[in-house]
Amino acid sequence: MKQNDPSHTLLSQAEELGHEGRARSGDHAALKLWLRMLASTTQIEAEIRRRLRERFDISLARFDYMAQLYRHQGGMKMRALSKYLMVTGGNVTGLTDELAREGLVVRESSPTDRRAWIVRLTPKGRRLFETMAEEHEQWILELFASMDDKAMQQVHAHLGELRVHLLRNAPNSQDSA
User: What radius of gyration, in Å, describes the C-alpha atoms of the chain?
Assistant: First the structure.
């Protein structure tokens, strides 16, 4: 990973280095890769946020919330939803309140745990999410159009290996006990 690779030069000229601007020519390849991954993720996320707001007047947090409920058609306990979204229970409660007012979700008491609530998409919420998800998928395909299938499969596999390594080396990992 040379500092003078064509992509780095082009990004620098466009003043779009972002996190990669922190890297120096003598830095380890792992640091440069981390900064490139971070910059790419940040750039893609910003574009998705912009498009969701522009096209559907919805935040990425709301889209992600609805995506989780869409995948769990039977509904989800709010605590599980909080865990999947990696946000606090307070954030989930706020989003649930907003989306319920708009008729996109319903909140029902859990039949097995009277302290818990189960949240489900309404038919209106399901239809809206399906419309957004179709466009979202096209946006992702467009944003990754510079990579062929083989390259995407390789990057996906390597990142999978990285995640397994990180999981195995996490302080609370079962393997490290």
Answer: 20
